[in-house]
Amino acid sequence: MSAEATDPGAHARKRGRPRIDLRRLGRVALLGPVARDRLPDAIGHVAEAHRAHHPDADLTVLRRAYVLAESSHRGQMRKSGEPYITHPLAVTLILAELGAGTTTLTASLLHDTVEDTEVTLDQVREQFGDEVCYLVDGVTKLEKVDYGAAAEPETFRKMLVATGNDVRVMSIKLADRLHNMRTLGVMRPEKQARIAKVTRDVLIPLAERLGVQALKTELEDLVFAILHPEEYAGTRALIAAADGGQDPLAEIAESVRATLREAGINAEVLIRPRHFVSVHRVRSKRGALRGTDFGRLLVLVSEDADCYAVLGELHTCFTPVVSEFKDFIAAPKFNLYQSLHTAVVGPEGAVAEVLIRTHRMHKVAEAGVVALGNPYVQDGTTAAQHDEPVDGERADPTRPGWLSRLLQWQESATDPDTFWTTLRDDLAQDREITVFGAEGGTLGLPAGASCVDAAYARYGDAAHGCIGARVNGRLATLSTVLTDGDTVQLLLAQDASSGPSPEWLDHARTPAARIAIAGWLEAHPDGAPGSHKTRPAPPRAQDRAADDPVPGLGPGPGRTGDRDTGVTVDVPGAPVRLAGCCTPVPPDDIIGFTVRGGAVTVHRRECPATARMRAVGRPAVGARWHDTGAWGGPADHRVTLVAESFGRPRLLADLTEAIAAADAAIVSATVEPPSEQRVRHTYTLQLPDAAGLPALMRAMRAVPGVYDVSRAQQPAAAR
Ligand code: MN
Questions:
Q1: pTM as predicted
Q2: Burial class (CB in 10 A: 0-12, 13-18, 19+), 256
Q3: How confident is the model at residue 376 (pLDDT cuts 50, 70, 90)?
Q4: Span 609-629, pLDDT tens digits
Q5: Active site residue 387
Q6: Parallel, antiparallel, or unpaired for β 474-476 and 590-594?
Q7: Distance from residue 106's CA to the centre of ligand 1 (Å)
Q8: Can 7 be counted among the known catalytic residues?
Q9: Which of 83, 300, 590, 694 lies 20 to 30 Å from 712, alpha-carbon distance?
Q10: CATH class of the domain whose range is 431-523
Q11: Enclosing H/E stretch for 220
Q12: Distance 78 CA to ligand 1 centre (A)
């Protein structure tokens, strides 16, 4: 397959694609009327592209790097027959176009010297300093001679570890892979397919997570052409056919321009062709393509507020397709991306998808972390600076949560095959959620993560002794899938005798948990004395899943199953949950916080979690207990409490003593037979007054061995 036959960029170029056209510039730099032996001209395009983003950049270091790279690679040829230096030059031009800083470009020019020439890392360090040396070292492959079949996995491991310290390592690797993919046509088909698969499974997800859309889309099209040649050819034919006629988007673009002009909004309205894979996806989803499906409208404005003004005009003057509206400005994706997405119905009934963003958002959308320039220096132009509520993933774009987690689990994956398989699985997972630890701190986890994942993320190998969890205050099975904003408390066995059950593997989504569980099971083929083989969760926890409301306040049968948390919040209709970290009870002073998904979590006002909620920008919501009329009559001073405990001698005596110390009378009590070291006591109590309940529950929880005390829906006698 020749390079021309699989040239996905050709279509975009012909149609005047408004995005940064890396490929065209790459060709100009390499094949243009430039004498390669004349130094300034050879890197002239790189310098020009670099200056466009960084007008004050010092180019002398780039020239020095070029001289060293060119002289050391001299005589080497690429498989295509071109002088080797064309490769580092093309890679550097890709990065320069995306706005990378001088240090990245210097390292990019030198990126293959240590691997393929006589140049040593020490020489690079002497001539270009520690930073450039670190970047070059980060992308230098480990030798097959030393590592055999493990060379590729171990090279990626090394690169990811280096990326953890300096994200520019991965910028260079991605650009390197893009140029190699563009020129893959000269390789044997089996080798093309092998490289394309690694690109699909590892490099493309990394480009996506680092927000480098321009590299991601081109890589996707190149992989598509190699791995799915027939679908690729079909898509190519559809696009070619559509190119022949009148573009229905042009007409809609013109009326959008007129609408915005009339409204006095200064905006650029462009037609942005979809890349091949995007067209293919729309076609697979919808079965057939409409004329407007080959591209989207891109509206570029100057200020963030203009984005919403444009949206308002479009939704007023056109019929919007409401289901297509997504606000990635207020609720950004995990990877820096910001835009408003909507779709409108044009004059002829054609539906056009529209992206609305500022010029700055556009640059970040295209170039992601590469657009940060030097992400470790605040130079006033970095995207890292825009002040937004900090929520973990966006707090430090150079060290996102997924990368920290990846670097953590890879330490336990000592075997290269395990590392390689787990890496691809990890990268295949989508966005992530933030959960709050009941003891403080937050955990970033992939969507779909369970309490098992939270346990290993929070406690590492100590999670082997996990016997249950409280999610938003309620006991929950370890298999409970967590949602964004949940508060999780993990219950660990006090002795070291218990261990994970094999079923935990079914509930573990994160590599850290899977590797730790598999390792423990391998080392304990017969399980442990306390292994939770049959019951991975505390007794009856199934009855009270994560989102089950707190049982009603009263013990009477009339209130059995009452789904009222007893709290009113200032967000009408919002589901209300009592926070598990502080377990508020009347008459505690309480406050609510809206979590993603619209639910309101209610905390005691002095709970440390309220400060964390505020710090991550969760809005506070007024909350108050219902009319405490339920506590008015003498019968209503009864309450039923369930104490979940580890069995031990004198437990019953200690619990009843705590109850007596609070002046409560025991109306009835049930003690279920111990199961796997755990005991459940249910007490129906008569209290002198309702205000004493919180203190009583805390006193019971303070009894050694007790890990949960909660209100039950039915009195002890009824069990
Ligand atoms: Mn290279």
A1: 0.62
A2: buried
A3: low
A4: 788 778 777 788 999 877 544
A5: no
A6: unpaired
A7: 14
A8: no
A9: 590
A10: alpha beta
A11: helix 213-227
A12: 11
